[in-house]
Amino acid sequence: MNILMIGAGNVAWHLATALEQKGNHISVVYSRHLDNAQLLAQQLNNALATNHTNFSEVGADLAIVAVKDDAIAPLVAQMQLPPQTIIAHTSGNTPLQVFEHLNGNNDFGVFYPLQTFSKNSPVDFTAIPFCIEGINANTETILFDLASQLSPNIHSINSFERKVLHVAAVIACNFTNHLFAQSAHILQREDISFDLLKPLIQETIQKALNNDPRETQTGPAVRNDTKVIQDHLQYLKNNPSANALYTSLTDSILQWYT
Amino acid sequence: MNILMIGAGNVAWHLATALEQKGNHISVVYSRHLDNAQLLAQQLNNALATNHTNFSEVGADLAIVAVKDDAIAPLVAQMQLPPQTIIAHTSGNTPLQVFEHLNGNNDFGVFYPLQTFSKNSPVDFTAIPFCIEGINANTETILFDLASQLSPNIHSINSFERKVLHVAAVIACNFTNHLFAQSAHILQREDISFDLLKPLIQETIQKALNNDPRETQTGPAVRNDTKVIQDHLQYLKNNPSANALYTSLTDSILQWYT
């Protein structure tokens, strides 16, 4: 497949190199900053780097838009595409409707790898779920087939479901990270290494993910152990941020289980 | 070392078998329920099972108290020990002072493996930090040496530090588990599998634990992305429990980073 890569960030970088390894050709890499486009193009077989958004003369079956969420709509509005090129973005947040302001009549869809990508750390696409959405069945099939080259884990997910996944991901990932940060901060205040807790964290998370996390809940709140809870809040009285979180998470667990 | 194992639950089970494998002898297993003591004793080389608390005639260098937190003080009050036997509990919550009501003048300490144990799932003690506390240097050395047989990861942790570790563990483990449960519940309401999120959760957690979690924070709150936050809260308006958590965790992240 002949692919136009719009964006040269983490997602574009990993997708472009992985798709070329599967026999596709990235004909053009676009970035607002030509330098970035050139950096990625150098990793590829004969890709042209550009910072212009008129692609009407480019031969491409598919344009993949892998840029920040709030950059998608403005880019889509100014972009010129050949009439047969399908366009798809890689975002978890942005609904399919962002493509309604396309200049042409191109088919469009979503090609969303549900993962967090970092520069310089290798990506195992076979472990990554792809969430696919298409404006019609033909587009959806084409995007499905392309994703199948990278991963056996492909799902048809509409824009509403993708938003729900995003809410759930924020709660399970971003908020979890913040709890680790709060925990590390508490230990640092007393000069205790966060490393001490890591084996316990790993084991707790494996248990939660290998079972139903609603069944693996432990700790003072699920036992309604008022004495320990009061003890902990007393210790946290000079740490209002951790104290507030401790209270709201304990209340939430008490509401669920007692 | 000749060891008296007080308790026959998960911790006692894994500790007793691991300590015998290292050449120690468990002479007696005590449990309030004789059946439980017998079950564990059968796994050991020539251990006596009992539900009596007079151990004054038992030959033992060390008594390990591996029972529930609120059972430690009543047991300690009724127990009779030989005068040379050191006594240590395995609890993260209970302070050293629980041993001040011992009948004799035995030395005492804490022998706390910082991990969560499940029946029937094997334990790799070499990955588990041990937190040691002793009423005097001699006791601490003896407990340190015993823990060294099982793990290279031994720390001298006093009762105050152990309480801080427990607060930090509740935040990093019990609360994290509850966030997974909330996330799984949100997806279930829309008939989306929690499995879809697991690769993202695994990657997020590895990133947080391999770096400083304060540096790996991502998501709408740390970007102060008001539009996405309002969108998510709007979606959660019929889920008061998740809505309240979303608000308090978002507030906490905003306070830390913006």
TrEMBL record, chains A, B:
Residues 3-87 form the Pyrroline-5-carboxylate reductase catalytic N-terminal domain. Residues 128-252 form the DUF2520 domain. InterPro entries: 6-PGluconate_DH-like_C_sf (IPR008927), DUF2520 (IPR018931), NAD(P)-bd_dom_sf (IPR036291), P5C_Rdtase_cat_N (IPR028939), TM1727-like_C_sf (IPR037108). Transmembrane segments: none annotated. It comes from the Bacteria. Gene3D superfamilies: NAD(P)-binding Rossmann-like Domain, ProC-like, C-terminal domain. This is NADP oxidoreductase coenzyme f420-dependent superfamily.
